Amino acid sequence: MANDGDTASSTPEAAPGPIPVMQQVLDSPFLLLFLGVTLPTVLYLIWGVMEIISVPLAD
Amino acid sequence: MAISPPPKRIWWNEPVHGVEIGWIAVTVLWGLFMFFFMIAWHFIGQQNLSTETYRVQPHAYQARVEAFAERFKVGEENGTPVVRPPAGEDVYILARLWEWWPILELKRGQSYRIHLSSVDWQHGFSLQPTNINISVHPGYEHVITLTPTETGQFGIICNEFCGIGHHRMTGRIRVTE
Amino acid sequence: MTAIDAGAIGVAGEAPARVAKYRTCRFTGLRIEAQAEALIKVNAVAAVVFLAIGGLFGLLVALTRWQAVHLLGAEWFYLVLTAHGANVLLFWIIFFEIAVLYFASAVLLGARLAAPRMAWLGFVLMVAGALMANYAVLEGNSSVMFTSYPPMMASPWFYLSLILFAVGALVGVAVFFGTLMVARQEKTYDGSIPLVTFGALTAAIIAVFTIASGAIILIPTLLWSLGFVSNIDSLMYKLVWWGMGHSSQQINVSAHVAIWYAIGAMVLGARPLSEKVSRMAFLMYILFLQLASAHHLLAEPGLSSQWKIVNTSYMMYLAVMGSMIHGLTVPGAIEAAQRRNGFTRGAFEWLRKAPWCNPAFSGMFLSLVMFGFIGGISGVVLGTEQLNVLMHNTLYVPGHFHGTVVAGTTLAFMAMTYLVVPLIFQRDILWPRMATWQPVLFGIGAGGISMFMMGAGTLGVARRHWDTTFTDAPHAFEHAPGAFLMLGLNGIFAVIAAIGGIMFVVNVVASILVGPKLGGAQTRPLTFPLHQQAAEAASTYGSHATVKLPGTIILVGLFFSAFVLYYFVNWKYLSELWLFR
Questions:
Q1: Residue B123 — φ and ψ, nearest 5°?
Q2: pLDDT tens digit string along C157-214?
Q3: For C306-317, what is each residue's pLDDT tens digit?
Q4: Contact across the interface for A57 and B60, Cβ inside 8 Å
Q5: CATH of domain B52-176
Q6: C290 contacts C209 by C-beta, under 8 angstroms
């Protein structure tokens, strides 16, 4: 907001050390995209399709 | 603020509010409880939907239902046969546009292997007013071991939209002592 | 933020990748690019148009279910119900979401929109798809419901229209990702993206999975309707289709949670209690929320209990944990901001003296409460493997998702619109008093619709069913009288919601067209002042372990009690059923 341009919310201070791994993960949109598409594809779609394919024939 | 980048370059090490930590603990524990309760119900509960399923040709299934109805038929109601299978017997229900076929007479406290399938579109087996709801697919034969616990006349309605006659699609199960 | 903007303008001035026109917002200091602004406008307008159409169809559905009115004939009922689903569940929501994605990327990051031509192409595809779908349905040969389960077949136009719409939406999502990259490369912001943008990113990621699932299943289905493919397996269709059908509603959840944070920030200057916790909660959405597509397959044959349990529980309820965390941090951030504003008396002065007359705030808070209490709790119960058999495909299901998508998402989007009109369209709201009452009215209506449909469903009434009295059925069946009472009340609350909806559409459209202009040198204050004390609240950084949040603790305690109670009540119902295994 225009009116919060005071001390606190000016440019973030320079990083005082290495950025934690988890923060790096959360800052990587394409890594997250990969995870967010792969996980449901494997657990929901592929696993589900395998189950349906393996339904046995009635005698 | 939530609409501007975090003021601290490294926000991961910021302290977390005590209330948040407490609430996270509650949600994790509750989540684990709900997860394991579903598994536990398979061992302690009496209501677990069977997953026994076979692939079947609709016309082959229809032939089996007709043979079953022929064998145990005891009467007729509005053109639909009334069938009284002995306890423990395999029982067949056929879903088609727009009826549940045939009408069944079951005994309270006895177990039946109920076979469910459709010969045309998808339908929704909805036993009322008991409120047991199961999806029915063409080409898949679903086998459920069912034990009625109350007597009386029960309706089967369709709760999967199946075209213009959907709301006329009914069937019946009678349970006697 | 002003400082960031100043720096960013400098960078853009030195080496613009493309000539992009910017203006600086007088209210927020945000730097807004012209193309992004235009695309936000057209997507928001399209969204409101389809909300109006779809909402009208919804009212007709509710008035038909109300047995005393029973407005439409059977054929029209099923046609209108199909149109209702497509227009509001897809078109209104996704158009608005694309606007949210552009807002959260280009506007909040002060960047230009990547590939505006592509964005326009996406928009045109979406409009073409939406119009074609309406044509296909209204023509009468595609009354197959939103789900269009085979072997029931719609006209090829129906499937084609959905594919076009989905491709258009996918283009929009790609533009969002591109804009994130542009902003990072051109250094229009420092450090990490804002939390709201992260929420939008969550929505965009889920959208990719959603649209991919839709493409996998709708393309073969289109070929089937054209006669090139002989058979579509009904179970396989249902599995993949719900990867789209349910995940698309998870886009909504992510988007409206992002909007809750955005409105908290814009109206009250609220900041997240801690960035870490809120972002981890979104991460749980990214990883696990889509698994809940299995909620629609719990009553199916052919899928094992293992698959059902893992998927329906979003991997041990980790995504539910995400929602419950947002349920604490959103009101918690608001309470913290209000307490710093000086509303410190008692547990709830912060809430009582919140800007309830501001429709952005009231809409957002009602959305938060109703999404949690109505949509959220019923969703988890409905998605429990065994409990599902009690409600699968009954009217309980639409009851649940009207609690999430109408009382939750739609209300949040409406609330956001009251900020979008002054900030993006630069028009004042024409009738502020009407705007003040609108979210309340719509919220009451939406809440009532959800509750009474859930009630009717609990009594066994089927969803998508024209005749609850079974007049022409060969074997008569009668529902409990309570069911008809529920359906009547549902009709009444649908009328209330419709009035709220009409007030929204009329007010927003009129404001956009003839509302007082806010642009230019003239410095008219907003009719809805962003909360006066917001400045002070925003001056110190959050994550203060020192701020006590008794009000929020009481609210979440209440929520949790309701949740546990309702969960066990349903297990008790289940244990009284016939035995089956």
A1: -135, 165
A2: 999 999 999 999 999 999 999 999 999 999 999 999 999 999 999 999 999 999 999 9
A3: 999 999 999 999
A4: no
A5: 2.60.40.420
A6: yes
Asked if B23 and C330 touch (Cβ cutoff 8 Å), the reply is: no
Work out the number of other CB atoms within 10 angstroms of the CB of residue C525.
10
Where exactly are the structural domains of chain B? 14-44, 52-176
DSSP bridge pairs for B106: B175
Q: Is the dihedral of CA C145, C151, C153, C158 positive or negative?
A: positive
pLDDT in tens, C321-334: 999 999 999 999 99
Cβ-based neighbour number of residue B81 at 10 Å: 17
- Which one of A8, A15, A55 has the shortest CB-CB distance to B54? A55
Q: Which residue has the tokens 């504003």?
A: C341
- What is the spatial distance between Cα C146 and Cα C388, in angstroms, rounded to a whole number? 21
**Pairs of residues, one from chain B and one from chain C, whose beta carbons lie less than 8 Å apart:** 322
Which two structure tokens, joined as six digits, stand for C521? Answer: 């040198």
Nearest to B170 among C108, C149, C475 (CB): C475
- Note the pLDDT of residue A14: 59
Rounded Cα distance, C534 and C1, in Å = 14
Q: What is the pTM of this model?
A: 0.92
Identity at C472, one-letter amino acid code: D
pLDDT tops 90 at residue C534: no
Picking from B11, B54, B56, the nearest residue to A23 by CB comes out as: B11
Say whether pLDDT at C532 is over 50. Answer: no
3-state class (DSSP) for residue C529: coil
Whether residues A1 and C193 touch (CB distance < 8 A) is answered with no
Q: Are C312 and C385 in contact (CB under 8 A)?
A: yes
Assigned CATH topology for domain C3-577 = Cytochrome C Oxidase; Chain A (1.20.210)
Task: Find tokens 């779609």 and name the residue.
Answer: A45
- Predicted pLDDT of residue C410: 97
Burial classification of residue C14, based on how many CB atoms lie within 10 Å of its CB (0-12 exposed, 13-18 middle, 19 or more buried): exposed
Closest chain B residue to A15 measured between Cα atoms?
B9
> Is some CB atom of chain B closer than 8 A to the CB atom of A12?
yes
Q: How far is A30 from chain C (nearest CA, A)?
A: 9
- Least Cα separation, residue C487 to chain A (angstroms): 35
What residues does each domain of chain C span?
Answer: 3-577
> Cβ atoms within 10 A of the Cβ of C480, count?
14
